[in-house]
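Query form — protein TetR/AcrR family transcriptional regulator

QUESTION: What is the three-dimensional structure of this chain?
INPUT:
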Amino acid sequence: MPRANAVLKKPIETPAEAQKRVRNRAATEQAILDAAKRLLADVGFQNFGINAVARGAGCDKQLIYRYYGGLDGLVEAIGTNLGSWVKDRIPDDTGGMFLLTYGDLMERLALLFLEALRADPLMRRIVAWEVSENTQQVRRLSEARSKALAGWIERMRGSLTPPKGIDTIGVNAVIFAAIQHLVLSAAVSGQCAGLVLKTTKDWEKAAIALKRIVRGIYG
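ANSWER: The structure tokens for TetR/AcrR family transcriptional regulator are given below.
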């Protein structure tokens, strides 16, 4: 029998055990993050809570506190994750399209952004929150998204120079705002300002109009 004051040594962790522990934690953190994003897309912030996220991730809620420090830390992690949304959703290459001018670039980026936003319900919710709610959580998500979008446009621009005399920041903001409004309106009512947006042909018509606007500005 060991003495009462004997120090119990912690078993030495083997490299294989350490690697497994790290993998398990990384997998759990990702499961929590994915569940939180799904929950936000489905119910928004009103029903967004630790218990609901834990159920969605299939884990103990204490792990959310351990890995993310609670709900605020989890929202912060979602905001950071959204910073790579454009990069993850839209390829850095041009899909085989040879870009000669800044107008070529903006036409391509606008169409890619339209497709990506239509395919992402969480991002649509965040865009809607940006214009309807002014909470710290929404601002955090919005700032991450805006920074990523601006960085993506700048990275894709490379050496292409916009036409002189055009306020590209203002013009591009209006173009992308128009895309966002089209997608949000379509999700709610299936139309926007009389333009039906339900079928593939409807969206092709919208894409043609978008290209004409971009070309009208940038040539």
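ADDITIONAL NOTE: Residues 91 and 110 are 13 Å apart (CA to CA).
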